[in-house]
């Protein structure tokens, strides 16, 4: 598991160097965004929060000639502003957000206390992003199982001409790493001398493992409380109050207490829980929690709200924390800072949706992962990749569910923006990892199946 995270971190760095690579997933991207956030020291007691004003524009005198879709017109301070513009004037263009870009993270930074440039969330991120032709973003570096036209697109350098799919080494062939093996396989080290590495089928439920990549795509590798070995555990399967390992070797290891938690950490561990959320239970353990009441740190009365979405105040002298409670415990399970919204610099949203949304989300994502046997183990969280290796294009019900999974992930990642129809539509038009844009790149026949789902989501909004 730590390998996957390290690899993610590497990919986050590589994306910048490798902007031709268009296969970056929405999960990968959100992981990159939150990686940088996790590295920031946030002093909730003294940091003033300053959200940028965000505006979707049809025309802008600077963006138009420069063909920009994201433009931080003013960086930091009380008048920070971000402008967004759709690339869809030209149907073949897409906003090139596949490398790290600056978003609203700057609002969390105690500007007075930053002396080292590396602590700034703007370092190594684009503040101006351009529209690019889809064909210029030709996919390369594809894992086995992905659709291809040319050998050089595949990591294995082997595009099988009759199926048009990247092919890797088969069962029992020697390998150096997971990437070498075909989809459905991982690179295993034999347990006896001379310990050679060979491709072998991914493991089934409850089989002993070392890392997620070894398990079938709908399972992760974790140590359940009181068991002696890590095992493949189905995602979104554990009941509330079940205890399992907190990943101390990842960037989440430094999150010492429930107050300086991150959205990424509770969702990352929560991928094992039916509730979709886990809190830190001890130094080394996580616990599945179902939080359905939230209070705000600036509310002296400590009202426990059950509604979702819950608004909170931004641009305050001290960051407002959303404190999440369950039914079991009188103290908050964890707290997360109020997220900047789109509509106003004053009003934001608590960053997590309600428990109903999260439970449905878990089922949708589990379903997508469970259908992705034709995707490589390293592509499991790359929903964008699933569009050409996972979804059986022949079944409209599966397509609708896949669309719902994409949309659910997008709403979860950008919860504070999914709350207003304008912001949601604006972001959908600009962000290439939105359901709309991912599906737009997919085969035509999907369109009719998706209309049903569109109707469902416009009712929600
Ligand atoms: C979280 O808080 C602990 C102790 O309060 C601190 O040692 C740790 O560095 C903090 N982590 C982050 C990522 O801010
Ligand atoms: C922040 O303030 C709270 C209460 O106001 C206090 O309990 C806590 O120790 C403070 N944290 C830090 C890091 O100063
Ligand atoms: C892989 O090879 C092993 C050993 O020959 C065999 O037992 C297993 O059935 C094979 N699995 C698949 C999926 O081909
Ligand atoms: C795996 O273990 C869980 C919990 O002990 C059990 O509910 C489940 O049936 C097991 N699955 C298989 C396939 O053995
Ligand atoms: C979760 O709880 C249900 C009902 O309480 C039980 O049937 C099921 O076995 C539990 N699942 C696990 C994985 O413990
Ligand atoms: C919170 O969720 C639990 C489990 O889903 C449920 O039993 C409980 O009634 C909910 N409480 C509130 C206040 O909604
Ligand atoms: C997961 O996929 C397998 C194989 O396609 C199927 O038999 C199983 O019912 C699916 N599980 C769930 C929970 O949908």
From TrEMBL:
UniProt keyword annotations, A-Z:
Membrane, Signal, Transmembrane, Transmembrane helix
* Signal peptide location: 1-38
Record keyword Membrane present: yes
Which superkingdom heads the taxonomic lineage of this protein's source? Eukaryota
Q: Where are the transmembrane segments?
A: 442-460
This protein's name = Uncharacterized protein
Q: Which organism is it from?
A: Halteria grandinella
């Amino acid at each position: 598991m730590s390998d996957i995270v390290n690899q993610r971190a590497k990919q986050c760095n590589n994306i910048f160097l490798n902007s031709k690579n268009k296969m970056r997933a929405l999960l990968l991207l959100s992981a990159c965004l939150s990686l940088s956030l996790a590295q920031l020291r946030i002093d909730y007691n003294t940091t003033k929060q300053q959200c940028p004003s965000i505006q979707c524009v049809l025309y802008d005198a600077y963006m138009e000639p420069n063909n920009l879709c994201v433009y931080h017109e003013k960086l930091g301070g009380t008048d920070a502003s971000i402008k967004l513009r759709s690339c869809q004037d030209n149907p073949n263009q897409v906003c090139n957000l596949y490398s790290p870009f600056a978003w609203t993270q700057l609002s969390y930074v105690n500007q007075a206390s930053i002396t080292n440039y590396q602590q700034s969330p703007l370092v190594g991120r684009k503040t101006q992003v351009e529209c690019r032709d889809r064909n210029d973003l030709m996919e390369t570096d594809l894992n086995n199982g992905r659709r291809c036209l040319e050998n050089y697109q595949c990591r294995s350098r082997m595009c099988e001409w009759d199926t048009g799919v990247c092919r890797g080494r088969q069962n029992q062939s020697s390998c150096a790493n997971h990437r070498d093996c075909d989809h459905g396989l991982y690179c295993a080290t034999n347990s006896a001398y001379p310990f050679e590495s060979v491709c072998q089928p991914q493991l089934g439920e409850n089989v002993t493992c070392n890392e997620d990549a070894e398990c079938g795509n709908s399972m992760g590798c974790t140590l359940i409380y009181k068991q002696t070995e890590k095992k493949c555990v189905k995602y979104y399967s554990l009941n509330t109050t079940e205890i399992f390992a907190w990943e101390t070797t990842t960037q989440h290891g430094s999150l010492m207490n429930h107050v300086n938690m991150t959205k990424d950490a509770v969702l990352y561990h929560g991928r094992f829980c039916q509730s979709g959320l886990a809190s830190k239970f001890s130094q080394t353990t996580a616990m599945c929690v179902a939080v359905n009441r939230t209070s705000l740190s600036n509310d002296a009365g400590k009202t426990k709200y059950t509604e979702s979405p819950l608004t909170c105040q931004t641009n305050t002298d001290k960051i407002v924390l959303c404190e999440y409670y369950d039914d079991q415990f009188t103290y908050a399970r964890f707290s997360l800072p109020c997220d900047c919204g789109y509509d106003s610099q004053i009003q934001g949203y608590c960053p997590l949706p309600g428990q109903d949304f999260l439970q449905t989300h878990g089922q949708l994502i589990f379903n997508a992962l469970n259908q992705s046997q034709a995707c490589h183990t390293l592509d499991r969280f790359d929903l964008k990749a699933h569009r050409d290796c996972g979804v059986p294009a022949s079944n409209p019900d599966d397509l609708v569910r896949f669309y719902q999974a994409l949309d659910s992930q997008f709403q979860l990642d950008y919860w504070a923006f999914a709350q207003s129809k304008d912001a949601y539509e604006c972001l959908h038009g600009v962000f290439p990892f939105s359901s709309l844009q991912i599906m737009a790149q997919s085969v035509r026949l999907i369109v009719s199946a998706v209309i049903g789902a569109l109707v469902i989501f416009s009712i929600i909004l």
